[in-house]
Amino acid sequence: AANFFLGVVGLSILSIMVGAMLFAAGCYDGSLSEEDRVFHDNLHPNYRPDSSTGDTPTFWDLVALFYPAMTGILAGTNRSSKLATPNRSIPKGTIGAIGVTTLLYLFQTWLLGSVVSNEILIHNKLVVAAIAFPSPVVAKLGVVTACVGAALQCMAGGPQLLGAIAADDAIPFLKFLTRKKRRRNDLIKTTNTKGVEVLGLDGIGLSRSLDKSLPLNVDFESEASEKVEAENSKRAVWFSWGIASLGTLLGNIDHITPILTMFYLIMYGGINFCCFLLAWVDSPGFRPQFKYFSKGIALLGFLWCIGLAFVISWQMASLALGLVYVIFKYIRLSSGNRLEGGGSSPGADWGEVIDSVKYKLTTAVLARVTGSENFHAKNWMPQILTVVDTDDGGYPLQSEVLALAAQLQKGRGLNVVISIKDGSFLGDGVFEKAQHCKTTLKKFMEKERLTGYAKVIFSEENYPETVWNAVMNSGLGPVSPNTVLMSWVTDWKKLLTQDEDDSAAAFSENDDKARTVDDYANTLKGLINMRRVVCILKGLSFPQSRDKMPRGSTIDIYWVVDDGGICLLMSYILSRSTVWRAGVKIRVFVVLTDADENPQVVEHAVVDFLQQMRIDAVVITVDLQNASLQDDFRADPWDKNCPSGVPTLTVCEKFGLKKGGDDDELTVASSLASYTYGGVPSPCNGSKPFWHNSCMPCTLESTPPTFPTVNNMPFDNNHERDSMMRQHQKQQPRCLSLDTAKKFNNLIRRHSSPASLVVTHLPLLHKASESVDFMEYVETMMNHMNNVLLILGTGVEYLTTVA
Fold first, then answer.
1. Which one of 52, 163, 431, 485 is separated from 612 by 20 to 30 angstroms, measured CA to CA?
2. Whether residue 634 has pLDDT greater than 80
3. From its phi and psi, is residue 470 left (phi > 0), alpha (psi between -120 and 50) or beta?
4. Integer Cα distance of 288 and 691 in angstroms
5. Distance, CA of 228 to CA of 316 (rounded, Å)
6. What is the pLDDT of residue 649?
7. Bond into 134 cis (ω within 30)
8. Residue 25: strand, helix, or coil
């Protein structure tokens, strides 16, 4: 049949060309006359209004009308399953079809346009039959055969392509077009004529009763592939026929062709764009065997198709692209629903080139920033690693830390959630258990709208070492965690009543938490020494990510020492989340710890500072004298055990507001004011506010900041050094005092009982003689408060005026 159609069409084309050449030579007129032979009458444009619509077409309107005639080039591709060697036949056949049809169209257009008058070409729809040699019947037969052949080609290729899309489950709403082949021993439940429930193949093959007394080794027959394929083809054909019939109801084929042109252009542009992207990302799965393939030509083809579509009609092109986008979103949403439901069928997920593009861009960006981790302070953002305890099924036991991590995403940093469990991957089923727990943890992250990565770590090492290794080995290069978020252990006192051997069981019903109080404290100490920002959350009633805080809610910051502004920065980032944005108000309580500090002056300085930082907050000064609270949150210059990066100044000393001593001794404030921080002149010099010096080096890999001690402080003379040495000798090591924690707790409860969240500094662990003392101090400080966030920075993250 194919050869017959090809022979008839070829003969008609030959008769038309021969007739046109004889007509040009004056040897044959056909159905035309001598007056219709006009040379070069169509050399210049001569657009006329359409007789039916009255509209005058343009060049691009005619391109849209003619373009569907050029769209048969994918006929071989649509029937690739029928080809013996598609990798060879498709390139040759497609390029050959393009070359032959292009030559025929150009030659025939030039030949008729050169010798036939413009009037005949406009009004005589069958002018090619009028000049066909030897008879117009040959050309008419070829026209009819070509139309029927094209229709059959479309009805053969289109439904097959549509059925393949449905069979691949690429577009879920097309599933009704296909039915999968039932294979041998595929059992389904059905009911026979007697009402007995049986297992069978829906009438295909054998069946048996569900009675357990019957044998189970029944072998069901497979369904024939040809039968299923034939049924699927019929469904696709009828569906295609319905779509084609709807188009013919418009009455005029000229009204349909511009619409078809848009979809053809979008389809060809999409194919070219996908080929370009796959070649650009160097996808291993994209292996074109056509040796002349070029990603540059593919990109040019995409731009040409899209540009041509918009030139023809930007309205129709926009409509077509909008429809493509709707289908794209539908496919993605349907794919996500299938994954949540456990998947639909094997092979339904074909992957997305967008994922490859993301990986390509990610690796390119990481390669560019490798070796340049020295980010300016203005570019610092919290890359959060959240430590969460889970049960054996992977369900989080402290969902509040996931909620806080999700609400801090406005910092636009990386999020990694880890759960540490006892065990070893040498055991049977441990990896599967880890994957199951990871999947469950990811679902809870999605519930809290936390985007990031989840890890479940099985380890037999001690708890601190496992956490430290997770922090060090998570992320890549500069995109590594710089902030660790952990939950406060509310039942830590249970450890004190148990022996060390069974302390893990007493700590919680789950054995994945820190084993002892020392484990928890040592974990924090190691993180501080690793120069990571440490955040501890007590969130008994912390809002979830789907909640909305009511108007009048407050985030209260108790600012005691100069932490670089990390408490302010984290609170500001938190206030930008959708949970807090509508009704939250930030209040900064500046804690005065010295009688020489003037509340009005301090308040004015802090207000001015916040205005410079562009942070909208209410400033309130509170008095807590004679408690030495500041010494629990800052390091002393003579403290050799002080970790690098911890605060050393009070808020008043930060702004140079602390009064000095007598003429014989230097106060700590005046000594530190002229010193350097990390090799850079200190921002607190007594003569300028802190924000005037807004640039310091900020890196985790560089030399730790230099903090002043008595031996390395600069002095103008020996008298000053001797005075400081005398002051140093009078100092005694200070330990955390519960009395100070109680006073601080009373201060917070007095001013912030209705607060939604209280943010303040984490006490320095090295000032506690034992881990229990630290835990008791923090517990006392947070007593009778539901939501408290304790933060300890590293000295490299701080507020800056530089945008």
1. 485
2. yes
3. alpha
4. 59
5. 38
6. 84
7. yes
8. helix
More confident residue, 503 or 767: 767
Q: Which of 595, 552, 463 is nearest to 516 (CA)?
A: 463
In this structure, what are the phi and psi dihedrals at residue 46, rounded to the nearest 5 degrees? -150, 70
Residue type, 459: S
CA 710 – CA 438 distance, rounded (Å):
51
| C-alpha dist (Å) from residue 67 to 78, 102, 258, 307 | 19, 12, 8, 14
DSSP 484-525: EEEE--TTGGGGGGS-STTHHHHH-SSTTS-SSHHHHHHHHH
Q: Taking phi first (over 0 means left), then psi (-120 to 50 degrees means alpha), and beta for anything else, what does residue 645 get?
A: left
Report the helix count and the strand count for the chain, using DSSP H and E: 24, 15
Q: Are strands 533-539 and 554-559 parallel, antiparallel or unpaired?
A: unpaired
What value, to the nearest 5°, has the Cα angle with vertex 781 and ends 776 and 787? 115
- Alpha carbons 440 and 463: distance in angstroms, whole number: 22
Q: Tell me, what DSSP letter sits at residue 181?
A: P
Q: What is the pTM of this model?
A: 0.66
Which runs of E-coded beta strand occur in 252-390? 384-387
| Rounded Cα–Cα distance for residues 214 and 222 (Å) | 22
Residue labelled with tokens 């069981």: 505
Residues 6+ apart with CB under 8 A from 1: none
Cα–Cα distances in Å, from 730 out to 638, 726, 727?
A: 11, 7, 5
Give the residue ranges of DSSP H helices in 614-695. 651-654, 668-673
- pLDDT at 103 > cutoff 80: yes
CB distance 530 to 471 below 8 Å: yes
Instruction: Give Rg (Cα) of the chain.
Output: 39
The string of pLDDT tens digits covering residues 270-299 is 989 989 998 888 877 788 878 888 999 999
- Name the phi and psi angles at 269, rounded to 5: -65, -40
Q: What is the pLDDT of residue 527?
A: 93
Beta-carbon-side half-sphere exposure of residue 395 (alpha carbons within 13 Å): 4
**C-beta neighbour count of 424 within 10 angstroms:** 10
For the ranges 14-18, 69-73, 75-79, 731-735, the maximum mean pLDDT occurs at 14-18
The first and second tokens of residue 680, run together, are: 């850079």
What the block records as the tokens of 739 is 């009395």
Of 689, 752, 744, give the one whose Cα is nearest residue 557.
752
Write the CB contacts of 614 (distance below 8 Å, at least 6 apart in sequence): none
Q: Report the candidate in 479, 481, 477, 452 with the shortest Cα–Cα distance to residue 469.
A: 481
- On the 0-12 / 13-18 / 19+ scale of CB atoms within 10 A, 566 is buried
- Asked if 53 contacts 177 with a C-beta cutoff of 8 angstroms, the reply is no
Percent of the residues in the chain that have a pLDDT greater than 90, as a whole number:
23
The alpha carbon of 664 is separated from its chain's Cα centroid by a whole number of angstroms, namely 62
Q: How far is CA 772 from CA 484, 514, 744, 775, in A?
A: 22, 14, 19, 5
Residues 6 or more apart from 559 whose CB is under 8 A from it? 567, 568, 588, 589, 590, 591, 606, 651, 760
Which amino acid would we find at residue 689?
P
